[in-house]
Amino acid sequence: MTNNTTPTGTPLITVPAARHLTTAGAATALIGTFLAWTWTAEFPGDLTVTGYPGGLQVLTLVGAALTLLLALSGYGIKGLRWLTPGGANSPVRLAAIGVLGTTGFTIGAISVELGGIVNLEPGAWVSLAGAIIAVAASLGLPTDQPLDDTIKHNPLDRFLNTLRAPAPERAKDLPNWAEILIIAAAFGVALHVFTYGIDTEYAELFIGYIISVAFGFTALNRAGLISRITRLTTKHRNVTLAAALVAAFCFPFTQQNEQYALIGANILIFATVALGLNVVVGLAGLLDLGYVAFLGVGAYAAALVSGSPLSPVGVQFPFWAAVLTGAAASLVFGVVIGAPTLRLRGDYLAIVTLGFGEIFRLTVNALNGVSGPDLTNGSQGIPSIPDLNLFGFDFGISHDIAGFTLGRSANYYLLMLVFTAVVVLVFRRSGESRIGRAWVAIREDETAATAMGINAFRLKLLAFALGATLAGLAGTVQAHVSYTVTPEQYQFAGSVPPNSAFLLAAVILGGMGTLSGPLVGAALLYLIPAKLQFMQDYQLFLFGIALILLMRFRPEGLVADRRKQLEFHETGQLDVPAEDAPLTQTTAGTTKAGA
Fold first, then answer.
1. What backbone torsions phi and psi does residue 491 show, to the nearest 5 degrees?
2. Transmembrane residues, as ranges (predicted)?
3. Minimum mean pLDDT among 369-383, 419-433, 517-531, 555-569: which range?
4. Closest by alpha carbon to 251, among 175, 328, 312, 198?
5. ∠ CA(327), CA(329), CA(333), 5° rounding?
6. How far, CA to CA in Å, does 356 sit from each of 280, 363, 374, 473?
7. Domains of the chain, with CATH numbers?
8. Can you give the pLDDT at residue 585?
9. What are phi and psi of 390, to 5 degrees?
């Protein structure tokens, strides 16, 4: 549907001309990807072939194709109108900026690595010119959401407004089978995109991938497609969970590289731990800065009883018993630490939990037989943890299943997926229960919740103990995946996850109190440093920058619930109803006030 919102200011070109130029620019950028971008294969990806895009050219090709489709949808062409149920013009701008970003980055990388722009072939210039034309022309398209003319706005506000779009109208209900197919297709596309990112073989390609995915996803969100899919997933929650698990189950079958499968296994481990922390921070509102210690308790407890030849305990429990041992140990520590400290609030509680995390690390480092009892081998840790063997299935060797070869990392990935499913189930059921609603009440206003008869201390202790237990479960698998556990793995902050800062950033980035938010946040925060090794030394600095930008532009997180969106963004609704306002106009405003 063509958007006819009048643009602010005096346009330099007419709207039809802007739309024509945007479409032509996107088509030009797309054509340029089929031409050579450089003359030598020294730049990774081999961009020297004409007629066959490769490496970063593929990302420009996909971005240009998306821009072209969104631009054509603005003409109201039958069969393409479904692409833009929300905004018609802001998605085009965002997609065009993404193409320009990917193309410009590629040209810059070629120039830096090969020694100047003389190493560029005509194809790179064609795509760059097309991207520039598309971006410049898209700025002449009308805004999808007008500014309030009663307020004076600076140029930045006006530009940001051109990237906003209204929410799409409610779509006509489809048959259940059709909606389920759409959900399955969406998760299939998500699996392909995620797999492509993990399979990137060099840093330049991964940076281009991040640029393309960020702008492409935002463009689709402004177009209203993400909102439409979100409505379907909300309507069919059980189907959505099943589709997500199936997509996750299929991931190791797409991997031929053991290193990439290991990245997937570690992402699941840390995402599961972040989801456990989300119980404490997101639901109950307890700031825990030493949460990684519970992961360490579970890992050490499992390592001690899993048959390591260097374990001072010298016993080997079955895996199910080792899992229960790790979970029980973390539960006990959670109760012991939480009981005397959860009467504190805010910063005081955060300081105490930070102290617990450091005490745990220093204690296991001292239990070396010299400074204390010989229980953890001190800084040497507990190495040589044997691989699991469940029902005759050896996790340490490769297996051929239905024509696919699953290596050691893929085996542990599938095992961790089972634990993740259990944690997701626990989080979902607890969040929707009376206890979960009581946690939210405590998070919003503990004094008011106590006045309403909620036993705040008991419920906070329950949240603390549950979060610790979930972390302990993940720690039992982590001990076997990494072969060894050492004190330095469990710090408050460090260049290598897991650490408490990493886990807390994952929860905040993804969206506190949501089910999928911590999973998304942990995946991003682990995948990006894993693929960009040069970022390891600057991880904390970049985390800080990311959190500052997040607090400025999306304080509710990447995946936010309705409550957070109403809390952090203006909705045009009154927090306190006007005296003469009818009840039908103030219902949503009452919800925003936290009722």
1. -110, 170
2. 21-39, 59-80, 92-112, 124-142, 174-194, 206-226, 238-254, 260-284, 291-311, 317-336, 348-367, 410-427, 461-481, 501-526, 538-554
3. 555-569
4. 198
5. 115
6. 15, 10, 21, 19
7. 15-144+158-165+174-233 (no CATH), 255-563 (1.10.3470)
8. 41
9. -110, 120
- Whole-angstrom Cα distance, residue 314 to residue 375? 11
The token pair that represents 251 in the structure block: 């991931």
473 and 298 Cβ atoms separated by less than 8 Å: yes
Backbone phi, psi, residue 459, to 5°:
-75, -35
Terminus-to-terminus CA distance in the chain, angstroms? 38
Tokens 């706005």 label which residue?
Answer: 153
Identity of the residue numbered 413: Y
> Given this model, what pLDDT does residue 366 score?
84
**499 backbone dihedrals φ, ψ, rounded to 5°:** -150, 165
CA–CA gap between residue 227 and residue 171 (Å, rounded) = 10
CA atoms of 384 and 160, how far apart (whole Å): 54
Q: Which residue has the tokens 């810059």?
A: 108
H or E element at residue 136: helix 122-138
3-class SS of residue 196: helix
Q: Any idea what the Cα angle at residue 375 is, between residues 364 and 494, rounded to 5°?
A: 25
121 pLDDT above the threshold of 80 = yes
| CA 349/CA 346 separation, integer angstroms | 6
Q: What is the CA radius of gyration of the chain?
A: 26
The overall average pLDDT reported for the chain is 82
Q: Cα separation of 424 and 445, whole Å?
A: 26
> How far is CA 262 from each of CA 23, 268, 384, 420, rounded to the nearest angstrom?
42, 10, 18, 16
How large is the angle between the packed helices 517-531 and 500-510, nearest 10 degrees? Answer: 120
Which two tokens mark 110? 């070629």
Omega before 498 cis (within 30°)?
Answer: yes
106-115, 134-143, 150-159, 507-516, range with the lowest pLDDT: 150-159
Q: Distances from the Cα of 422 to the Cαs of 141, 365, 460, 568, in angstroms?
A: 49, 32, 22, 32
Confidence of residue 152 (pLDDT cuts 50, 70, 90): low
DSSP state of 283: I
CB atoms within 10 A of CB 218: 18
Cα(534)–Cα(80) distance, rounded to whole angstroms?
42
Q: What is the distance between the alpha carbons of residues 433 and 398, in angstroms, rounded to a whole number? A: 42
* Residue partners of 150: CB distance under 8 A and separation at least 6: none
Say if residue 374 is exposed, middle or buried (CB neighbours under 10 Å; 0-12, 13-18, 19+).
exposed
Q: Which runs of consecutive H residues, i.e. helices, occur in 236-291?
A: 237-250, 258-278
pTM over 0.85: no
